[in-house]
Amino acid sequence: MEGSPNSVNYSENCLNQQMMAHLSDVDDISDVDGEDVVKKLQNTITSNSQPEYSTRRRSIFNTTLDLADLGSVCNATNVGIDAFVERVAREKQNWCNFVTRNIQMLKTSHANGAEAGSYKPSMEQQAYLDQGPDLQNYVRGFGTFMSDACVFMAETEQMQERLEDLKDCCQFHINEMQRNKAAETLAGIKD
Predict the structure, then answer these.
(1) Which pLDDT score, from 0 to 100, does residue 18 have?
(2) Please, are residues 90 and 97 in contact by the beta-carbon 8 Å criterion?
(3) What is the pLDDT of residues 79-101, one digit of tens each?
């Protein structure tokens, strides 16, 4: 199989190019001290700042956060929270004022003898309502309109039936005249 050696050569070339890319990132390999690299690696593995990785599992429940460096973010967040709390307090106060005002209005209307749930429009509203159409007259007018509409529909149906009868009668006369002409023409030819 000739395809296999080519694919092996291709993969070796890719690996070599990757290694060359990593080696080319370092300017001079002779500057790297092997002992220094080993010490840095050993310090990273046995670092005192993270002993919990080797001794026990980490959990979000046993993690403490140091927020000392996040002071400005916390202050900005606190300002936003304070503004939200103030807005909610104002809305709550507005709602309480609305409810107490309506309760007072209800109590005064009961004291004046008004029925519960009744509403009396203002003078302007009453004048506007008085200028509008009367519901009883509208309903009466609607009844006469409907009776007139029913009569019109019945008369229209009768007219359509008469129109169809008239068309049939005219067609019959036309056919009769054509038969008579055809009979006269044929009688004239025989003679």
Answers:
(1) 47
(2) no
(3) 788 889 999 999 999 999 999 99
